[in-house]
Specification:
globular; 2 domains; 444 residues; mainly alpha; Na+/H+ antiporter like fold
Length: 444
């Protein structure tokens, strides 16, 4: 028994250390001038808006069937429940102990994507999940199933992070940065960046009165007529949408505005994956072998999977780049932000001690005393770990898009780095979840 616990602990420790090494690769990339601050923001945006939706489309679509759809309902309920409870706890602690406002989203939103995915891959490599896999189940299927469980949880976490996170990060409304509204105006006027660039090119071309100007590196690849037409159509659609929105009652405007906050790329990816998984004809052409009707599997599905697999590692590397930037400012004597020790201890305790104790006990009770959960030990293990782990890496992206000042951004980056240095403490939660799942199996 003791040797099994030691083996599990060492396997979990190796998984956590692999994440720290991935962060260090981001530091090396920044120190070697391979990634700049601007390029890091673009990589982070690409991860959230392209790679994560692709990952959700593939994993949710491949694992979701009409026969297995019901097993995801408890995950959705559990994800919403623990996130809401975490928000309430964060707001209470910030108000009672006068902590920085970014402590609230740090407590509310844990890492639901890159850390669990890398952790599952590493646990698969060490073989410590084999005790939860039945003889009739293959290891690859069980690992893919675990990833799909974590990704459904990630969909909820991402939606709540970008919908409610800005309000939590700002604290009281009067503390919200004034420039946030100013920075959002161009996006409302011209929803497409390429269209905006094209419109500028048209204006410059008109002012020059030289239609025979030779092409150069800044010349638009689109014809001026096409640019004008697309820009006019976008503006007309925006005006019609605004007019329709203004005609609605105030309560309807408030409801639509709140619901619109939950419409983001990861949610769209998850919905697409769910549709593909639940429609038998689509599931067949996307995920069956070519001989069995999977005509899209070898090229379209594979390409989606390839870009989706980029998400976990790249998102962790971004944190390493942020750490490097903070270290550089410290060496130069510039303001690099602070991470108060009281906030660090509080967040670490909540994320790595309190929530593991609650989730392991609660899910074990559901698995053994009720019929709420499907009889899948991998599902129990995943649900026990869902509320566990350091704060979400998206906290750094949230500070960027929310208009936080550089001091707060550096504080968040430093805090995230320290949190991931302490991330090997998740080993105790992994071992506890593993043993609790094994105990639940023996009671079945």
């Amino acid at each position: 028994m003791s040797s099994g616990i030691v083996t599990s602990f060492l396997g979990a420790l190796q998984a956590s250390l692999s994440i720290l090494l991935t962060i260090s690769y981001g530091v090396i990339a920044a120190q070697s001038k391979l990634l700049s601050e601007a390029s890091t923001k673009e990589v982070s945006k690409t991860c959230v808006r392209l790679f994560l939706p692709a990952l959700l489309i593939h994993n949710v679509g491949s694992q979701l069937h009409l026969e297995t759809a019901l097993r995801y309902i408890p995950i959705l309920i559990w994800s919403i429940l623990y996130n809401i409870l975490s928000m309430g706890l964060g707001l209470l602690l910030v108000r009672l102990f006068k902590m920085p406002h970014w402590v609230t989203p740090a407590i509310a939103f844990n890492n639901t994507t890159s850390l669990p995915l890398l952790l599952v891959q590493s646990l698969d490599a060490t073989g410590i999940l084999s005790s939860l896999i039945s003889s009739s189940d293959s290891t690859s299927d069980a690992i893919q199933r675990a990833k799909s469980y974590f990704l459904v949880n990630a969909m909820i976490g991402n939606s709540l992070t970008f919908a409610i996170g800005p309000a939590l990060l700002n604290g009281h409304e009067e503390d919200a940065p004034d420039r946030q509204a100013d920075e959002s105006k161009p996006d409302n006027d011209v929803p497409n960046g390429a269209a905006a660039d094209g419109a500028n090119d048209v204006e410059q071309a008109g002012n020059s009165n030289d239609e025979e100007e030779r092409p150069h590196e800044e010349t638009s690849l689109l014809l001026n007529r096409v640019i004008r037409a697309s820009d006019h159509a976008a503006q007309a659609a925006s005006r019609r949408k605004s007019e329709f929105f203004r005609r609605l009652p105030n309560w309807a405007q408030s409801v639509l505005s709140f619901m619109y906050q939950f419409v983001n790329a990861p949610v769209i990816g998850a919905v697409i994956g769910a549709v593909i998984g639940l429609v038998p004809a689509l599931h067949r052409v996307f995920f069956n072998s070519t001989q069995n009707g999977g005509y899209l599997n070898a090229w379209l599905t594979t390409s989606i999977k390839n870009i989706g697999d980029l998400f976990a590692a790249l998102q962790v590397i971004v944190v390493g780049v942020k750490l490097s930037q903070s270290m550089s400012k410290m060496r130069k004597g510039e303001e690099s932000g602070t991470a108060p020790w009281a906030s660090m201890v509080t967040i670490t305790f909540v994320r790595l001690v309190l929530w593991p104790a609650i989730s392991i006990s609660f899910i074990y009770m559901l698995a053994t005393k009720t019929r709420t959960l499907d009889k899948d030990p991998i599902l129990w293990f995943a649900m026990m770990l869902m509320p566990t782990g350091p704060p979400a890496l998206k906290l750094a992206a949230l500070a960027d898009v929310n208009g936080s000042d550089e001091k707060e951004k550096m504080s968040v980056a430093k805090f995230l780095t320290i949190s991931y240095i302490l991330s090997p403490l998740i080993c105790f939660a992994v071992v506890g979840s593993l043993r609790a799942s094994e105990a639940a199996m023996s009671n079945m």
